[in-house]
Amino acid sequence: MESAIKTIVTTFLSSAKGKEGLDSKTFQKMVKSKLGGVMEDTNSSSAVKEMQQGLDADSDGKVNFQEYLSLIGYIANSMSQSKSEPTANSS
User: Where in the numbering of this chain does the EF-hand domain appear (predicted)?
Assistant: First the structure.
């Protein structure tokens, strides 16, 4: 679990490159390169922009670390739910 947390933190910090948040272009690049395997529509600029706007709680045009963690929590929750749902063949 420690390595997963370190990965989450270092992914944000390396993407932000010393800034406090991810601007639209940086967020788009990070989502496409780091989350494409666990999310749909990561190649759609409009879908990622809409996601960014939904995460941007303080409306500053950037995704800060807390807002980024909201995305990570949403993805983790979705993955957990999909893994715990019974499959059609398991009855």
Answer: 43-78
